[in-house]
Amino acid sequence: MNAVDPVLPKDTDNPDWDSGTAELGHLLRPGQLDLSHKVILYLDDITVSFDGFRALDRLSLAIDAGELRCIIGPNGAGKTTMMDVITGKTRPDEGTVFFGQTIDLTRLGEPEIAHIGIGRKFQKPTIFEHHSAFENLELAMKADKRVRRTLFASLIDDERDRVAEVLRQIRLDQAADRPAGLLSHGQKQWLEIGMLLMQEPKLLLLDEPVAGMTDDETMRTAELFVSLAGKHSLVVVEHDMAFVKALGGKVTVLHEGSVLAEGDLDTVQNDQRVIEVYLGR
């Protein structure tokens, strides 16, 4: 695969900049995300070593545009390192990572990768606890943050509608004015997911998003993720098999830094290799 110049951060002063959003799978203008082959993320033969330990071992993986993919595997399988490589936190020793057909993520820094449409959520929610849920989403909005805009203008109707829409998506429309610090653990997780959605990501990376949630919150989170699939692509790293089952779709099992098995949950749960290294423990 031949790389072209990566997408650069948005230049609001450039009249040729196309800020429009394309449907998944549509070939965009040069320099924008190319999903013409319906695949949003390619990892090809990725190898990462730390002090002689091979965290990823020729890992190859492809995520379709609009797909909801679950990644499971034992501790030390390489799940977090994989996300670190995708987001630019860790550089691979070997291999390539492409966002769409043309954007080589190994050539970009973390801020650039976030800007072109890849959002990541860590296990512990990071929110502004003294601000309301509405204000958290407002602060996260992908909008003009210049001083004049920030100090002298309130939200326009379209922006308020966008915040209200995301509040409904994350099931917090009834808690819009509640200080974020008073939300339940699950609600705080949803709020951070909402903050990512305000950035209009094309790909969401979610690391154990239901850890610490109640059973009811876990199932509500599954419903949320299923509703987001199609408009966004989601990669979910998780250990909760009931949650993985509720999500449906394809499951990838990592072991010792490479793919051990792939398929629906029933297929991987009945794979003897998976039982031996992960599910049987």
Structure description:
The chain has helices at residues 79-86, 110-115, 133-140, 147-152, 157-169, 185-197, 215-228, 241-247, 265-269, 272-279, and strands at residues 39-50, 53-64, 68-72, 94-99, 103-104, 118-121, 203-207, 233-237, 251-255, 258-263. The protein is an alpha/beta fold and 281 residues long. It has a 6-stranded mixed sheet with strand order 6-7-8-3-9-10, with helices on both faces. A 4-stranded antiparallel sheet has the order 2-1-4-5, covered by helices on one side. Helix 3 (133-140) crosses helix 5 (157-169) and helix 7 runs parallel beside helix 8.
Features:
31% helix; Rossmann fold; single chain; globular; six-stranded mixed beta sheet; alpha/beta; 281 residues; disordered N terminus
Q: Major β-sheet, in short?
A: 6 strands, mixed
Order of helices and strands: EEEHEEHEHHHHEHEHEEHH
Question: By helix and strand content, what is the structural category?
Answer: alpha/beta
Task: Please report which band the strand proportion falls in: under 5%, 5-15%, 15-25%, 25-35%, 35-45% or over 45%.
Answer: 15-25%
> If strands are numbered along the chain, what order do they take across the biggest sheet?
6-7-8-3-9-10
**DSSP helical segment count:** 10
